[in-house]
Recover the amino acids of this structure.
């Protein structure tokens, strides 16, 4: 069962989400952070959260600013805002009496999860296909960067949608540095990555893992693509997260 929710972003516009709830008593609760322009209904978000709910872990997944059902303009966002909105989502879950035990992030959402985990006051964090440098996302819009930096903004066509890419966004992504946040986690970390990920190379996972302190774990998602779109890939990731997180859930 999925419950539709809305909650304020860090800058005011309402963000739309779904809470995938377990059929029986919850073992715990989690929060999923999607990638750059993907949304709460992308295969990785939907399938992992549904699998975790089947395993008794209720999950909130939501659309970032200006995407799908959320209010606001995507172009007004930034990596800094993505981190702040992750914290706001965790606060929303706490206010409804379902405090987040496990924070899960995919792709750029994995980077945001690593940066937000401590202020969000979660028990454990999972990164899936995450870059060590958020600026890595520039590979997706590199043809527009010079124009954005000189003119202030440009239209970016993504999956049939026109998004506004602004100079402030590009600069914020370039300036973001996760290493201190990763060193300061002081909580269980699970790093998941495919060795054949052609979008965010597995060297990123290696550096995240080396930078982190124990307790830390690594799982190789053999055969998976970056977006976890092939049959069974996301569900397998969900089952692994469920087993790993068991000892960190509220009794």
């Amino acid at each position: 069962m999925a419950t539709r929710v809305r909650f304020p972003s860090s800058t005011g516009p309402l963000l739309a989400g779904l809470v995938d709830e377990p059929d029986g008593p919850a073992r715990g609760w989690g929060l999923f952070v999607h990638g750059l322009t993907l949304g709460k209904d992308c295969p990785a978000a939907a399938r992992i959260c549904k699998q975790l709910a089947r395993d008794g872990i209720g999950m909130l997944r939501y659309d970032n600013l200006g995407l799908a059902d959320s209010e606001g303009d995507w172009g007004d966002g930034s990596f800094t805002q993505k981190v702040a909105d992750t914290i706001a989502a965790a606060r929303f879950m706490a206010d409804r009496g379902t405090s987040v035990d496990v924070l899960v992030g995919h792709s750029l959402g994995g980077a945001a999860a690593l940066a937000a985990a401590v202020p969000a006051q979660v028990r454990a964090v999972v990164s899936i296909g995450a870059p060590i440098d958020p600026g890595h996302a520039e590979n997706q819009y590199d043809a527009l960067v010079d124009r954005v930096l000189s003119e202030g903004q440009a239209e970016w066509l993504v999956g049939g949608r026109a998004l506004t890419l602004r100079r402030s966004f590009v600069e914020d992504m370039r300036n973001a540095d996760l290493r201190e946040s990763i060193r300061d986690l002081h909580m269980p970390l699970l790093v998941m990555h495919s060795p054949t990920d052609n979008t965010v190379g597995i060297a990123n996972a290696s550096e995240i893992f080396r930078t982190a302190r124990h307790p830390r774990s690594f799982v190789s998602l053999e055969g998976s693509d970056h977006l976890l779109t092939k049959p069974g890939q996301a569900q397998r990731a969900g089952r692994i997260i469920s087993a790993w997180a068991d000892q960190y859930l509220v009794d």
